[in-house]
Design goal:
The protein is an alpha+beta fold. Helix content is 22%, strand content 37%. A 6-stranded mixed β-barrel has the order 1-10-7-9-8-11. It has a 3-stranded antiparallel sheet with strand order 4-5-6, with helices on one face. The longest helix is centred in the N-terminal third of the chain and has 13 residues. It starts with a helix and ends with a strand.
């Protein structure tokens, strides 16, 4: 086989998780999802809160509870409400732990296992999320060890996807 043909075959093998060496893929990673709750999906009693460097606003209590868990929520007015550092914050977009915009395909991981900027393939994700390649670009305090938290979008449909992807999966570096 020519050197060019070997290079092409090697490149194709690197792009296919199932063809990678054992060092490129590993099994038994805990996969969970996180999402951005949308205020209009919540009902119930309201509560006033003070937002850092802004006014006081009123939101549904169950929406506020979900924002505390997920990090950010989309308000009825179209801006985003975040909770970190024991304070409420306002933004034009939901943010990751580094203050960058969240987007589909971003995952949070323990930096001791996967460095920010790494690109990974997670088996069986394309059936649920329409993609299987992700970028490690976030950290979350609850993500420890062989655990990856995948950002899946906004609203109730995204929340359902968090449940659908939860489980143990194989990941591969790409």
């Amino acid at each position: 086989m020519s050197k060019l043909m070997i290079l092409i075959v090697s490149t194709i093998n690197l792009l296919s998780c199932s063809s990678m060496t054992p060092l490129g893929c590993s099994d038994n990673w805990k996969i969970t999802g996180y999402y951005t709750p949308v205020e209009s999906d919540f009902k119930g009693r309201s509560k006033n809160i003070q937002i850092m460097d802004a006014d006081s606003y009123s939101f549904k209590e169950d929406f506020l509870a979900e924002v505390k868990i997920e990090g950010w929520g989309k308000t009825i007015d179209g801006w985003y409400l975040g909770y970190y550092g024991n304070n409420w914050h306002q933004s034009e977009f939901p943010k990751d732990a580094r203050g960058h915009e969240l987007y589909l395909g971003k995952v949070a991981a323990d930096v001791n296992y996967l460095a920010p900027g790494n690109r990974i393939h997670i088996d069986n994700m394309s059936k649920i999320l329409g993609q299987s390649q992700f970028k490690v670009a976030d950290v979350r305090s609850a993500i420890k060890g062989r655990h990856i938290d995948v950002y899946v979008g906004e609203g109730e449909s995204a929340k359902k996807k968090t449940w659908a992807i939860t489980g143990t999966h194989r990941i591969c570096s790409i």
